[in-house]
Structure of MoaD/ThiS family protein:
Amino acid sequence: MAKVTVRYWAAAKAAAGVAEEPCEALTLAEALDAVRERHPGELARVLLRCSFLIDGDPVGTRGHETVRLIEGGTVEVLPPFAGG
């Protein structure tokens, strides 16, 4: 398992109730499952609309189960933003 930091922005931050938190996971899919379990309810709905950055790189359309996490990495959770 890799120890990473999950950072929440905007609506994701409000739904999680924290700005960031540690997580242990091998893939983005595992990390998202872990945070859904920690924060049931609204966060699960918000995550459906989010995009993700892993160590600054966009995940895009890659399957979350194929996105590997590295020790000390960062997962940015980005809900859609209004404006540009």
Remarks:
- Strands lie at 2-8, 20-25, 51-54, 57-58, 74-78.
- The mean pLDDT is 95.
